[in-house]
Design goal:
mainly alpha, about 190 residues, 2 strands
Length: about 190
């Protein structure tokens, strides 16, 4: 079970991972349309009062996947010339699967807050939803840890990364991907 959850790249074939990742990309995007979720960065999710269309959310997700793929691939190819494109793409697709289900926390749009709400009303909102907010925070932290574990385990396997240099390249790729994806999404969609 540990291999399936944290190192599926060692258990399943490339085409299985690609199909699984693509299916959950579409399913996660579909869920996000009804839950007012917004994937406005490579490792970001936000809830809002406005609802993006399926096409807009799919575009966001494709930008995130493309930028994260490109950054990890360039970091991988720099370190290990035999890095395969499909391996990095599958790593990115699979690592985002747990992330898509975070949208379900906002299934009835209860976590969307209007930014013009006065601070006292915002505090009332937080107190009303305290248990949900605490639960969501814990789950989000676990999902982000899971996502990074999938990303790093896959990256390490695909690029033969070892030691501090491999880790530094991985971290740099993630930071650059987050910045680039935000810039692209905010200049094209939002």
């Amino acid at each position: 079970m540990k291999v399936i959850l944290f190192k599926p790249f060692e258990k399943f074939r490339e085409n299985q991972l690609f199909i699984f990742g693509t299916f959950f990309l579409l399913l996660g995007t579909y869920i996000a349309t009804f839950c007012h979720a917004n994937y406005d960065g490579a490792i970001d999710i936000h809830f809002s009062n406005y609802q993006l269309t399926f096409t807009e959310l799919l575009t966001e997700n494709l930008i995130n996947i493309s930028v994260l793929f490109l950054c990890l691939f360039l970091a991988g190819i720099y370190r290990y010339k035999k890095t395969k494109t499909i391996d990095i793409l599958n790593i990115v697709l699979i690592s985002r699967v747990p992330f898509y289900f975070l949208a379900l926390f906002n299934v009835n749009n209860s976590l969307s807050v209007n930014s013009s709400i006065p601070i006292n009303e915002l505090m009332d909102f937080a107190m009303e939803h305290l248990f949900l907010l605490i639960t969501m925070t814990i789950v989000m932290i676990l999902v982000v840890i899971w996502m990074f574990a999938l990303l790093y385990n896959g990256y390490k396997t695909a690029t033969n990364a070892k030691g501090n240099v491999g880790l530094a390249l991985f971290i740099a790729a993630i930071v650059v991907a987050e910045i680039l994806s935000k810039l692209i999404i905010y200049s094209t969609i939002l």
